[in-house]
Amino acid sequence: MKKFVISTSSFDLDNNPAIQRLLQNGFQAVTNPHRRKLTEDEIIELLNGEVVGLIAGIEPLTERVFQSASPLKVISRCGAGMDSVDLAAAKKHGIAVLNTPEAPAQAVAELTMGYILTLLRQISQIDQAVRKGEWPRTQGRLLAAQTVGIIGMGHIGRRVARLCQAFEATVIAHDPHVNQAPDGVTLISLEKLLATADMITLHLPYGPDTHHLLNAQAFAAMKPEAIVINAARGGLVDEDALAEALRSGKISAAALDVFEQEPYRGPLLEFGNTILTSHVGSLARESRQRMEIEAADNLLQGLIQTGLINHG
Length: 312
Hints:
Blueprint: E1 3-6, H1 17-24, E2 28-31, H2 40-46, E3 51-56, H3 63-68, E4 74-77, H4 87-92, E5 96-98, H5 105-121, H6 123-131, E6 147-151, H7 155-166, E7 170-174, E8 185-187, H8 190-196, E9 199-202, H9 216-221, E10 226-230, H10 239-247, E11 251-256, E12 274-276, H11 285-305
Parallel strand pairs: 1-2, 1-3, 3-4, 4-5, 6-7, 6-9, 7-8, 9-10, 10-11, 11-12
């Protein structure tokens, strides 16, 4: 019996038309028994047998994985980022790779706005103080008075720009792949953005070229009291250098949803002026539902194109 694997930590099979059609066509669904991000060995084990399709999470999909999964024909990423997939190796093995770039964009953009407002008004610290019986009269900062620097102007970055503009913030951006900025957004060099922005938020893919894009040198170039946000990918920020910048007071606050090693157990845990969340950027109910439906539909269409399932 032909199988497809769903490697994400959770997935709603029952309310997904494309999944139901695959099941009706005699396919068997294999889900993630660990309910967390899989290791390379675990995804190899899961893809064992007559597995022709994969709805992928963020597990490493490497040459070694593809070598051991010769029947695999279609990978459908449930999400936007493709950095966990060796695209060259997939092409070599004749595996189609698809993703859902639009589906999680609003959820990640709204989480980013939550970070921005929470850090500017110090909501988390005030909440903790009140719970301890204190009554602080903490003075925060207005988003309308800030210059927000967005690195990466794709689906998510553009949404963040619009939301910040709605709060009357000044928006500047850096993206070497974009020639024309949205209305009211000024495209500038990375060096100028680091030196100019009050808040810097990352919305770009991770790769060898962007590894530790924000490192000790980048933090040193920022304005005093800059705020740093990463809801894109772990590895874009040198976490140890960020901890040092927070410790020295060079950076006033930070929010991270993604880390080089997850679950995160590093030095940023010790700071009260950080928000650390558990890679939940796309986990808004409506966005997650759309991601799953689009990912399953991509898998179905991919299997139709390879002739493994009849059209119509």
